[in-house]
Amino acid sequence: MGHQISRRSLFRTASGIAAATAIGGTLSACGGGTGAGTTSDKLTMTWWGSDDRHNAYKKALKTFQEKNSKIKIEERYSGYDGFFDRFNTNVAGGSAPDLTQMDTALVAQYARKGVIAPLDEYVGKSLDLSGFSKELLAAGTVDGKLYGVPSGIGVNQLTVNRSGLEKLGLELPDREWTWADLKKIAVEVNKKSGGKMFGVDDGGGGALQAFEVFAREKGQPFFTEDGKKLGFTADTLQEWWEYWVGMRKDKACPGPEITSAAHNNLTKNGVVIGKTLITFDIGVYGAGGSITKETLDFLPSPHGDWSGAREGNYVNGGVLLSATKASKRIEDSVKIMTFFAQDKAAIKDMQLLRGIPPTEKARSIVSPDLSDIDKRNMEVADYISKRVAKASDALPTPVPPPKGADQIWDLLFQSNLSIAFGKKTVKAELGAFFDQAEQILAE
Known about the structure:
There is one protein chain. The chain has a five-stranded mixed beta sheet, with helices on one face. Strands 9-10-8-13 form a four-stranded mixed beta sheet. The model is unreliable at 1-15 and 28-35 (pLDDT under 50). The chain has helices spanning 10-22, 24-30, 51-67, 83-92, 107-112, 134-137, 162-167, 179-192, 208-217, 234-249, 256-262, 330-342, 344-350, 360-366, 372-390, 405-420, 426-442, and strands at 43-48, 73-78, 99-103, 141-142, 145-146, 149-150, 154-155, 157-161, 198-200, 276-279, 285-286, 289-290, 296-300, 315-316, 319-323. It is globular, with a radius of gyration of 22 Å. It has two domains: 43-152 and 318-381, D-Maltodextrin-Binding Protein, domain 2 (3-Layer(aba) Sandwich), CATH 3.40.190.10; 157-312 and 403-442, Periplasmic binding protein-like II (D-Maltodextrin-Binding Protein, domain 2, 3-Layer(aba) Sandwich). By secondary structure, the protein is of the alpha+beta class. Strand 11 and strand 12 form a beta hairpin. It comes from Streptomyces scabichelini. This is Carbohydrate ABC transporter substrate-binding protein. InterPro entries: Bact_solute-bd_prot1 (IPR050490), SBP (IPR006059), TAT_signal (IPR006311).
């Protein structure tokens, strides 16, 4: 059983942002609508996920209703594809659910359109957020108000084929490793495998969280706080792309053919097909477990190895639970949020299916029942969370992505791919990237 972290499942997030953007005008008009849910007396709750997540939600909600007999819940669930298209249609038609699972990448758009309700008046009363860190709650906070309760800890970590390393006589790197350490072990993988394998997939553009962490280590966010501009400099992106030019040259990562094929297609990820041993794509170990048969382990994103490098990792909130603003049952929805956050049975039912549990209390509850790989996963996430909390130089948690973020993420990938194929130099691609990104954010 694995976990999903919505912010970094880029192909899913991008489709969700596109859905939210496409119905922008309609959502603005309907955000303060006259009703939510259905004509029945049941509270409607919607979510997306795997069959394991569906079953866990249903089991937990059955327990909730046994403890709160006056609240009856109508459950609606599906996969991620099309989820927000259906949500938008329901909002526009006046039949929005009362309570919904919300993507951290979309919460700002729905909050600013008046679709979901601020929860601040309930905090410390019917909404019990004991044990939630300020950094974690930032994932559901928009313009200073709380619009979503995080389900778990989302962190930047790499997935490692540990058994593959061991077969080559290599050890798992230390958690306090650097970008130089990543290159060193990646080159060793290629040498010891006789050139048959590469150490890591190409993170130059295919993994947003990799560059985002790198930029934050230089004190630069991906987007400015108002979401109207890029927060990093051309020098930072140039240094990043040149690092990956060197990685490709030294056979530390694969060429553009493998990188291109794996884009938005987990079945062709380098770790999955046996071409690489380390990946930035957390989807390789997502809800439902690993899609490889290898023994996997996890590492934080590498540290900057230059003077003055800052803590670049951060904690975000997995998925959120949000109440719709038009609902007449927000108080009941808040009770359900508290139930999932604090009830021992609910925490045990959900395990890691909505992310690494958000509090130390919750993590201690689920730990005894986890598989070894889930324990390693949670241990590394907990390690990163504590390291970020102790860091005095870390930037604030990133703001929710602005409109157009999906286009810029894809632009980052395509630009790196163009460099990898030799179509453009790094410097030539830099100018084009910043020009296009500026136009996207200005729309």
